[in-house]
Specification:
The structure is a single chain. The protein is built from 18 helices and 17 strands. About 45% of the residues lie in helices and about 20% in strands. The longest helix has about 60 residues.
Length: about 675
């Protein structure tokens, strides 16, 4: 038997290697295709068949590999590079046997023999559809965020609503890649108009066009008011009402996306994207982006409306302020004219009145007058004095308002000043049947620097009011340094006060005696001891001068809390008709103004039915020397009288001479 043996080890090794390669190719998730140089398929791995649906025979039956490509020029470009012996790698759009769109990464190369000759083609195809979709979503999100940030920045940087809306529709159109974007604004009665528009070239502009759609208000406004978003891929397949479909057709709209712009529960308008070239499927991300922009537009609209309202209010306020300023200037001018007139008319107002009062005094001394005539002259005299007081008060008030009154500071003997006031009101209180008490709270300087006339005027006004409005009980006048007064003032109880005029008179005598004794116990102002007492602390580094407090307490009718501020108004009296007393209503107003000129103010504490407390703290520096020559409490008229010749029944010359002598004899001095 004859036999032969052939070594097939290499073949077996090659077959094993081929099996291993085949197993590797079949197990990979990437699609692998091998084709000849003409492009006809030779081999498809299982991944290719599962993803794209074609076997080798099926793909060859419909042509070649070009059937997979959405764009044939991509296949021709790849095939040309491979035939030239070059590799090719890139992203292409493919479609499966079932016409599903696939984005793939293709890496293709030529197969060469051991001599370097091309004998076939091989391509590895990786499906990157999901990755591209994720990238697209990320890009859209990024673009949406950029659009939102740009919108917020525009809202912060500009309050021009038209500018914000115009720029917004422009950016939305580019973001969605649509043909037209509009903002539709509703009128209060329900109709509306296109506020702004952004439209691509070669498409119909509709801004300014009359929009009439009766179906819209009936069927869709309620949905948008509830915040609904409406996305229509194809208007012809959306089941729209005929009138609404006719409107969209007239506007060349094939697909639209509508988002409401809400301000609370009020539907301000709609943000609408129009796609005109054909149907369009809207993505959820696009609807969410437009909804977010609608919210930001609502904020911008609200902010712009508030700004316009604020601008309008500011303009109105400026007009009102200008009118008020003009009125104020006119009022101040009139007030200054009035004050200047009254302040300069002092002599003209007082001279005739003084003459009247002087003649009345001359007539009152006539012993031939009947009681009725005496009473009439007394009434005339009282009315004249009241009128003179009113004129003086009005003149003082006018001078203060016209800034023509100045304080005249002089050295005042303080003890004599206080005593003159006490003497005056002890007499008035005794005449009314109430008690008048004086209390010196602390040691006082002998001499002070003050405007004696104005300080006296203030204290007389306050004490006069206390006496006038106190029908029973007492009036207490306290003087001392403010730091020595208690902080909490005791409430005055008028029910326990039953002092009679007799007791008041005794109290007056007692207080006067005490005051005189006190004055006698002090060293004379001219002595060295007095100067040392007054100037002991008068150094440059001493503390500020303590203020002297004048406090008036009464057990009168009191003042209600809501009336305390009114008592300082000019020509104003607080109280009912039962408690009304004679007065001009200027005393407290003038006193408060005078005290403010002195750097202080009058304060008051009152309880209706129990009484009131008025006080003022005034800076009255002590002086070393002061002569004891206080001014009288009231101005007195100095009169000289002449014995007039008896009138002859038949002599008019005698009466004329009498009048002449009377005019020459009467001398009135203020």
């Amino acid at each position: 038997m004859v036999g032969s043996m052939t070594d097939i080890s290499h073949r077996k090794a090659a077959e094993l290697a081929l099996v291993q390669v085949t197993q590797a190719v079949e197990s990979t998730s990437d699609a692998i295709v091998i084709a000849d140089l003409k492009g006809r398929s030779i081999y498809h791995n299982q991944a290719f068949i599962q993803r794209y649906g074609y076997t080798v025979e099926e793909l060859n039956d419909i042509g070649d590999m070009a059937a997979l490509y959405v764009r044939h020029k991509n296949y021709k470009q790849i095939y040309k590079s491979l035939r030239q012996g070059c590799s090719w790698c890139g992203e292409v759009a493919l479609q499966t046997k079932s016409c599903e769109a696939v984005t793939a990464l293709v890496r293709a190369d030529s197969i060469q023999d051991i001599n370097g000759n091309s004998i076939g083609l091989i391509a590895v195809i990786t499906d990157i559809t999901k990755r591209k979709e994720s990238e697209l979503i990320l890009r859209q999100k990024l673009k949406r965020e950029q659009l939102a940030v740009a919108m917020l920045e525009r809202i912060r940087s500009s309050l021009n609503l038209e500018e914000i809306l115009t720029k917004s529709v422009e950016e939305v159109r580019h973001f969605l890649q649509v043909d037209r974007t509009i903002i539709y604004q509703f009128n209060p009665e329900g109709s509306g108009f296109i506020a702004v528009e952004s439209v691509a070239e070669n498409f119909l502009p509709i801004v300014g066009m009359e929009i009439y759609d009766p179906c819209f208000g009936e069927a869709y406004v309620t949905l948008y008011r509830d915040g609904r978003i409406r996305a229509i891929e194809d208007v012809y397949n959306a089941g729209l009402a005929d009138c609404h479909l006719a409107l969209l057709t007239r506007l060349d709209v094939r697909a639209n996306l509508v988002v409401p712009i809400l301000q609370g529960e009020n539907l301000w308008g709609l943000l609408i994207a129009h796609h005109c070239t054909g149907p369009r499927p809207w993505q959820q991300l696009e609807g969410e982006c437009l909804k977010q922009l609608g919210v930001q537009l609502a904020i911008a609209i609200q902010q712009s409306m508030l700004f316009e309202q604020a601008q309008s209010e500011i303009a109105d306020r400026k007009l009102a302020e200008a009118a008020l300023q003009l009125a104020k200037e006119a009022a101040e001018s009139a007030s200054r004219a009035k004050s200047d007139f009254l302040a300069n008319m002092s002599h003209e107002l007082r001279t005739p009145l003084n003459g009247i009062l002087g003649y009345i005094q001359l007539l009152k001394v006539d012993k031939n007058l009947t009681p009725d005539q005496q009473e009439s002259l007394n009434n005339i005299h009282q009315c004249g004095n009241h009128l003179l007081m009113l004129i003086n008060d009005v003149l003082d008030l006018s001078k203060i308002e016209a800034s023509k009154m100045e304080l005249s500071l002089t050295n005042v003997h303080f003890a004599s000043f206080v005593k003159s006031i006490i003497d005056l009101f002890q007499m008035r209180s005794a005449q009314k049947g109430i008690a008048f008490n004086y209390e010196q709270v602390s040691a006082l300087p002998d001499g002070i620097l003050a405007d004696e006339k104005r300080l006296r005027q203030v204290l007389i006004n306050l004490l006069s009011n206390a006496v006038k409005f106190t029908n029973r009980g007492s009036v207490t006048f306290k003087v001392g340094y403010a730091e020595n007064f208690p902080e909490n003032y005791p409430q005055t109880n008028c029910d326990t006060c039953n002092l009679t005029a007799e007791i008041a008179t005794k109290t007056m005598i007692h207080l006067t005696a005490n005051l005189d004794a006190q004055q006698m116990s002090l060293p004379p102002l001219e002595t060295k001891e007095a100067r040392e007492v007054i100037t002991a602390d008068n150094t440059d580094d001493r503390a500020p001068t303590p203020k002297i407090r004048f406090q008036i307490e009464d057990t009168g009718i009191g003042i209600a809390q809501n009336k305390l501020e009114e008592i300082f108004l000019p020509f104003h009296q607080v109280g009912d008709h039962n408690n009304f007393v004679e007065g001009t209503g200027l005393g407290l107003s003038i006193s408060q103004k005078l005290v403010k000129m002195m750097g202080s103010q009058i304060r008051v504490q009152s309880t209706p039915g129990k009484g009131s407390i008025f006080w003022l703290d005034v800076d009255l520096p002590a002086v070393a020397q002061c002569s004891e020559t206080p001014l009288p409490a009231t101005k007195k008229a100095a009169c000289r009288f002449y014995r007039l010749p008896a009138e002859s029944a038949n002599s008019g010359r005698s009466r004329s001479k009498s009048r002449h002598v009377a005019q020459a004899a009467f001398s009135f001095r203020l």
